[in-house]
């Protein structure tokens, strides 16, 4: 079956617990997701939705798997652009792995977003946004770590 | 994966994109993501072993991420470190440069 998929990876100097908090707390999310927030109970089977800064619905879905600090899988559908919504469900998997062979504790965050169709507009649209979101998330978490521990100098 | 690479050290990142074959690999992946080594080799006139080495360097710079599908290793372009280069090295210089160009244009045009 042909699929559209991307696999984005970033390494962040933080802990799995803090990264999980950043991924699932609306107040935190707003700071790096360009004002958007996601709302959910963050347990398997719970509904999930992503809202733009002005409160309009961006995407909807359902939590497929939620293992705090380790793994989050979301069934995800666009709601604001009819031709993209028509592509149906995508699957977004976020994996958090601790990186231990470095001086400063870090985590590897991998985002895999896929849909069961070739040349997907949905994947094209979200793949453009993720690098900026992840770059913001990294800066935010690492700046926070610097505030907590001023001896650590960012690389 | 090497620990120094996984932290996106700038030296490794810039080294990775300093080579034309590696930039070609990034372009090929940008065109179509999730390719096997064999598919990537079709686009480069070099030995499979060399392509493997280039991919290894790109992977250690975190510009390429991989996933296994059965026995096949699929390669994906990971643009996140490029975004970080943009944030660090391009965006902050953009505004002053645009302003300078604007002032230059105004001055040259007012001299006419």
Task: Based on the model shown, name its key terms.
heterodimer; A: 155 residues; alpha+beta; Alpha-D-Glucose-1,6-Bisphosphate, Chain A, domain 4; seven-stranded antiparallel beta sheet; 4 helices; 7 strands; 37% strand; disordered C terminus; B: 112 residues; mainly alpha; Arc Repressor Mutant, subunit A; 2 domains; two-stranded antiparallel ribbon; 6 helices; elongated; disordered N terminus
Structural write-up:
The complex is a heterodimer of chains A (155) and B (112). Helices cover 31% and strands 37% of the residues of chain A. With 155 residues, chain A is α+β, with helices and mostly antiparallel strands. In chain A, 32% of the residues are buried. Residues 145-155 of chain A have low confidence and may be disordered. Chain B is mainly α and 112 residues long. Chain B has 2 domains: 1-78, Arc Repressor Mutant, subunit A (Orthogonal Bundle); 80-112. Chain B has a two-stranded antiparallel sheet with strand order 1-2. Mean pLDDT of chain B is 87; it is low at 1-5. Classes of the chains: A alpha+beta (155), B mainly alpha (112). The A-B interface holds A 3, 5-11, 13, 99, 101-102, 106, 108, 110, 112, 130-132, 134-135, 138-139, 155 and B 3, 6-10, 33-34, 62, 65-67, 76-80, 82-84, 87.
Q: How many strands of chain A? A: 7
CATH topology grouping of the largest domain in chain B: Arc Repressor Mutant, subunit A
- Principal-axis shape of chain A equals globular
Name the structural class of chain B.
mainly alpha
Summarize the helix and strand pattern of chain B as letters: HHHHHEEH
Instruction: Just give the CATH class of the largest domain in chain B.
Output: Mainly Alpha
Topology:
The complex is a heterodimer of chains A (155) and B (112).
Chain A: E1 4-12, H1 16-24, H2 26-32, E2 37-40, E3 47-51, E4 57-67, E5 71-78, H3 82-85, E6 90-99, E7 106-115, H4 121-148
Antiparallel strand pairs in A: 1-7, 2-3, 3-4, 4-5, 5-6, 6-7
Chain B: H1 3-6, H2 10-17, H3 20-31, H4 37-41, H5 48-60, E1 64-69, E2 72-77, H6 80-111
Antiparallel strand pairs in B: 1-2
Helix pairs in contact in B: 2-5
């Amino acid at each position: 079956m042909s699929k559209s998929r991307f696999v984005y990876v970033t390494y962040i100097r933080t802990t799995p617990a803090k990264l999980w908090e950043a991924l699932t707390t609306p107040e935190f999310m707003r700071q790096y997701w360009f004002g958007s927030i996601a709302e959910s109970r963050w347990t398997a089977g719970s509904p999930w939705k992503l809202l733009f800064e002005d409160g309009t619905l961006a995407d909807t879905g359902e939590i497929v798997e939620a293992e705090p600090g380790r793994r989050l899988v979301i069934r995800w559908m666009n709601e604001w652009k009819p031709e993209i919504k028509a592509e149906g469900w995508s699957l977004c998997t976020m994996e958090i792995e601790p990186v231990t062979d470095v001086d400063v504790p870090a985590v590897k965050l991998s985002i895999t977003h896929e849909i069961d169709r070739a040349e997907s507009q949905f994947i094209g649209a979200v793949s453009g946004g993720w690098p900026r979101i992840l770059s913001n998330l990294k800066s935010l978490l690492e700046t926070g770590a610097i505030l907590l521990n001023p001896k650590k100098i960012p690389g | 994966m090497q620990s120094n690479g996984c932290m996106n050290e700038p030296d490794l990142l810039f080294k990775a994109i300093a080579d034309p074959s590696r930039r070609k690999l990034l372009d090929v992946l940008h065109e179509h993501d999730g390719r096997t080594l064999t598919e990537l080799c079709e686009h480069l006139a070099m030995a499979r072993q060399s392509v493997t080495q280039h991919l290894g360097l790109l992977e250690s710079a975190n510009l390429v991420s991989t996933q296994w599908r059965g026995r096949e290793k699929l390669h994906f372009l990971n643009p996140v470190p490029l975004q970080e280069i943009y944030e660090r090295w391009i965006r902050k210089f953009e505004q002053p440069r645009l302003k300078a160009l604007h002032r230059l244009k105004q001055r040259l045009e007012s001299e006419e």
